């Protein structure tokens, strides 16, 4: 449903829940239709009753009127007709018809995206690059004056044009994608077609991609967006976008809980300066509950460097690429180890202890959180995982299991959530909040440089914090958000012991714990 400022889909008020209700309604309607048909048959039998036939000899007029009334009740305009209408209605509301229609529409859109990607892939090496090169060379020639050193000046002009191209074209592309966000979504959705098209348009590249895919054990040509990303990753040949020769180490930095307060709403979970935010570190927060358990909130940081070469900082483009290819990353290993370490500090790390766990993060942090929820290794070590909260993260294609509740915050103009080319599923346990930033910015945010709703400006963490506040405001009136909040009570508003109210000699396990973890990617033995 829609609310001013935000649009909520999925969850208790979503289409999936409505389809579940139809699954119940259709057989119920069929049962009522059968009962009415039986009643109509019973009334019809009354017309053949010997007593009624005998009465016709004595009072034919009255008996005829009685028979007509019985036929009116039991016939086409009565019970029998109603029974037939209900049978037709039961067939109309059958949820499988809606699901089949939705699946057909989705396949049609995917086919269009794939074809568009194929055409674009062929056009890039055969049309786009030659035309672009001709334009750059021509512009350089027009600006270069004939002279004894003409060739050197011309080459210098070409190099200058190429260097200036990103700074000139980048802002324009950013603005266009902010105004038309669907362009990126459908372009990325056809990534498998794009990879195939590039190979067809430039056969040597196609042969190289096929060879790298074969060496990595990947399917070629790719059939899905994730497979296409995996092929591109393999094309790096181990020099870029590859962390297979590394391992990860974590260093714990306990944080004082003096004056600390537990999170009270979504805004506290997503704010960069919120009580569970670790900034550039993984922060694990253990919130003591009244029944002796802990509620664990894990904040995963986003991208910190866009270098394609894997370095010591693992929150980089390599991890982004691997996550989009649905591969396990060293950052996932680090978060798993960090939560285990924090739980061990409270004595809650024993195998089988299913304390509730919420994973959250912005951008790459959100992708990592969703990937961990889909990871059987993580779920085996932390069986209490129950919630994932993300902002500005492309997780629509991540197979998060049904038992994990997901809350995704996305801005319509933000390019990052569109990078997986898939919309979030509409199901009972997955709530998506989308906000159109055009004309919907608070006054204090309109003055910020990153508040302009361009494709990159819409990714601002500060803007997502304001969206989190809108979610908290709408929770009381939106059924999906209200049900999500009720399910997240352990993390937000359950009865608990706060740090500032802890007894001088509390019972074991009553104190909160907050630990920041520094994560580094290192060479084995390095």
List keywords for this structure.
extended; 526 residues; alpha/beta; 10-stranded mixed β-sheet; single chain; 13% strand
Query: Order of strands in the sheet with the most strands?
Result: 1-2-9-8-7-6-5-4-10-3
Portion of residues within helices: 40-55%
pLDDT < 50 runs, ≥5 residues: 494-509
Strand content: 5-15%
N-end to C-end Cα span: 53 Å
Radius of gyration: 31 Å
Q: Which structural class should the secondary elements be placed in?
A: alpha/beta
What's the shape? extended
Oligomer: single chain
Largest sheet: 10 strands, mixed
**Mean of the pLDDT scores?**
79
String of helices and strands: EEHHHHHHHHHHEHEEHHEHHEEEHHHE
Number of strands: 10
- Alpha plus pi helix count: 18
Indicate the topology.
Blueprint: E1 2-3, E2 6-10, H1 15-46, H2 50-58, H3 60-74, H4 79-92, H5 95-143, H6 150-179, H7 182-189, H8 191-201, H9 203-215, H10 225-234, E3 247-255, H11 266-270, E4 282-288, E5 294-300, H12 317-324, H13 330-345, E6 357-362, H14 364-373, H15 376-381, E7 385-391, E8 405-411, E9 430-435, H16 461-474, H17 479-487, H18 489-492, E10 513-522
Parallel strand pairs: 5-6, 6-7, 7-8, 8-9
Antiparallel strand pairs: 1-2, 2-9, 3-10, 4-5, 4-10
